[in-house]
């Protein structure tokens, strides 16, 4: 069996990432010093002048207020000070908006109650999403887990599947806000089974490097603990920065980088493969191609069997390089969870159709920042810049498919085609018609 949801981190990568904390010999790519210095200097100057301060009370208050609005459960906030309430609200904004924690930790038992299995291989190794309600970890233990992957339930082997390798880049303030929110969530009595991973070659934890070492350019992390920090966003961008950003564009790009690279984990879905042995695969960054198998219970609901992530920044095939691209189009797609620019609008593919539901809750400033960041990422060229297949459609009979198609093993096949990309995810073009993938298909084998 395969891991049935997004953010599945292969065990092989986790082992390799330990050595990845020490940089290999040879020159490390660097940005033009003038550009890197100018971006950082300009943001620092703005902060000193009081313009757009990273810890701006207005921005913090707005996110905290939205967070309290979108929390799906009544929180335990009796006796909290105003500052503590702000932190709880900010944590909810991250948990329920930018990071979609309930996507893995929500279950039939309740909100964030855990208990979902994530199968690591065919040898019986499995981990279970933890019950995050009634959290017993101290704040220091929680911070250690998020920074290093230490599993306090089983200290001999680190966490896998849990995307702490992305969340580790959040600022102290934002991680502490997540902790404060989880502590305020009412406990749900749901005993989660023990993981089966003890005989895997996993270390206890991966030390936090103290600087950003996950992209093509190593950068020092800014010495601040501010919330939603544009300066930190500049530090944790996996690719080089564009050179022509000015003022508001710069701040929006930097803020978007912070959200995209420490919270929403865009890379985990939209880069294939998402990592080299120890770093983000920057050569294919955000060019799509990752295949996701839709969990069987969701297939008749979403009318999808499997989906492939979109190419976002490819020079020729990238969604954000389309001549029709605009923030208005992007915003409409997120808020409707559909290809709103198509007629009729087609639902987004899995898992983006679910993730968009959470992103639609964030402030317009933050959604616009994500757009500005991805728009500013250097275009991917070469072999990684490919058109991507549409999702494979679920059916129970041929009447659920388009004219001229048939239903085979619960997916629509038979559409006219010239090449494989004309067909749905993992299907092939055979004799001018789209055929279901073979059981030994490499595409099927790669599906998460």
Number of strands: 13
Q: Note the overall shape.
A: globular
- The chain-level structural class is mainly alpha
Q: In percent, how helical is the residue content?
A: 25-40%
Structural summary, described in words:
By secondary structure, the chain is mainly alpha-helical. The chain folds into 3 domains: 1-17 and 51-208, no CATH class; 235-384, no CATH class; 392-446, no CATH class. The protein has 16 helices and 13 strands. The strands form 6 sheets. The chain has a 3-stranded antiparallel β-sheet. Strand 7 and strand 8 form a beta hairpin. Helix 3 crosses helix 4 (82-98). The chain is globular. The model is unreliable at 1-30, 32-38 and 42-55 (pLDDT under 50).
Give a brief description.
The chain has 448 residues and is mainly α. The chain has 16 helices and 13 strands.
Descriptive labels:
448 residues; mainly alpha; 3 domains; 13 strands; 8% strand; globular
């Amino acid at each position: 069996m395969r891991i049935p949801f997004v953010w599945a981190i292969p065990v092989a990568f986790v082992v390799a990432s330990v050595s990845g904390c020490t940089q290999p010999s040879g020159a490390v790519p660097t940005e033009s010093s003038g550009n890197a210095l100018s971006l950082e200097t300009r943001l620092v100057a703005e902060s000193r002048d009081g313009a757009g301060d990273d810890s701006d009370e207005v921005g913090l208050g707005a996110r905290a207020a939205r967070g309290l609005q979108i929390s799906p459960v009544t929180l335990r906030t009796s006796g909290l000070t105003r500052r503590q309430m702000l932190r709880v609200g900010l944590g909810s904004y991250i948990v329920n908006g930018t990071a979609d924690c309930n996507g893995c930790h929500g279950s039939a038992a309740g909100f964030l109650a855990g208990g979902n299995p994530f199968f690591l291989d065919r040898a019986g190794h499995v981990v279970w999403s933890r019950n995050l309600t009634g959290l017993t970890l101290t704040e220091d233990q929680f911070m250690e887990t998020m920074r290093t992957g230490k599993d306090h339930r089983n200290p001999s082997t680190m966490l896998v599947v849990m995307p702490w390798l992305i969340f580790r880049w959040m600022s102290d303030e934002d991680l502490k806000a997540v902790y404060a929110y989880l502590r305020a969530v009412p406990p749900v009595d749901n005993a989660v089974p023990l993981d089966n991973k003890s005989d895997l070659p996993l270390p206890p934890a991966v030390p936090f490097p103290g600087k950003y070492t996950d992209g093509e350019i190593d950068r020092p992390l800014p010495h601040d603990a501010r919330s939603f920090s544009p300066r930190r966003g500049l530090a944790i961008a996996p690719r080089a920065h564009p050179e022509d950003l000015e003022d508001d564009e710069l701040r929006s790009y930097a803020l978007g980088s912070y959200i995209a690279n420490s919270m929403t984990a865009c890379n985990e879905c939209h880069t294939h493969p998402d990592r080299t042995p120890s770093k983000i695969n920057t050569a294919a960054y955000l060019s799509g191609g990752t295949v996701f198998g839709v969990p069987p219970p969701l297939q008749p609901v979403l009318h999808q069997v499997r989906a492939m992530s979109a190419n976002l920044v490819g020079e020729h095939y990238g969604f954000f390089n389309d001549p029709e691209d605009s923030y208005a189009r992007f915003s409409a797609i997120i808020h409707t969870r559909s290809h709103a620019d198509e007629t009729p609008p087609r639902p987004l593919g899995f898992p983006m159709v679910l993730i968009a539901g959470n992103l639609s809750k964030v402030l317009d400033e933050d959604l616009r920042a994500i757009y500005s960041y991805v728009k500013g990422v250097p275009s991917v060229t070469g072999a990684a810049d490919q058109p991507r297949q549409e999702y494979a459609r679920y059916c129970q009979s041929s009447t659920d498919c388009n004219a001229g198609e048939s239903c085979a093993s619960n997916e629509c096949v038979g559409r006219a085609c010239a090449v494989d990309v004309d067909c749905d995810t993992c299907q092939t073009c055979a004799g001018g018609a789209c055929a279901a993938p073979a059981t030994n298909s490499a595409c099927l084998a790669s599906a998460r």
